[in-house]
TrEMBL record:
Main location: membrane
Organism encoding this protein: Ficus carica (Common fig)
A GO cellular component annotation in the UniProt record: plasma membrane
Protein's membrane topology: Multi-pass membrane protein
Any GO MF annotation of the entry: copper ion transmembrane transporter activity
Name of the protein in question: Copper transport protein
Entries under Pfam families matching the protein: Ctr (PF04145)
Keywords: Copper, Copper transport, Ion transport, Membrane, Transmembrane, Transmembrane helix, Transport
Family membership noted in the UniProt record: Belongs to the copper transporter (Ctr) (TC 1.A.56) family. SLC31A subfamily.
Residues spanning the membrane: 52-71, 92-113, 119-139
Amino acid sequence: MDGMDHGMNMAAPPPSSSSMNGMHDKMTMHMTFFWGSNSEILFSGWPGSRTGMYVLALIFVFVLAAVVEWLSHCRFVKQVTGSAPNRVRAGLVQTLLHALRLGLAYIVMLAVMSFNAGVFLVAVAGHAVGFLVFGSAVFKKGDGDKVASDLPPMSC
């Protein structure tokens, strides 16, 4: 078994000079949900330990989640039955909207992956409020409002 190592050294790596200075010991990556405003969401050092910045981060995640729902239910492109260039233009607009919606949804997902329970709750609340306002029947004017959105619904 002497030659069976194949480069898989299981020993702990030696401490680096930066961890000896205590720079990496300040922030730990959580792998379970936790409560508290001392966290990192999306960017290194943001929001940090400042409560005001944490509240701003929560508002940011809420708005992003609501915008994802808005993009899922909006209607920017009218039914195109004309010439091929118009259909191509409409298809390109739909593709750009889809890419934008997907990119924002991934940003919300990455924020939730901070495992901060407050971020999780505001992301769910943002999606719920966004669906209530833009997707549910509560704010629809009537039967003429049953126009499908430009984009297909996001599937799991």
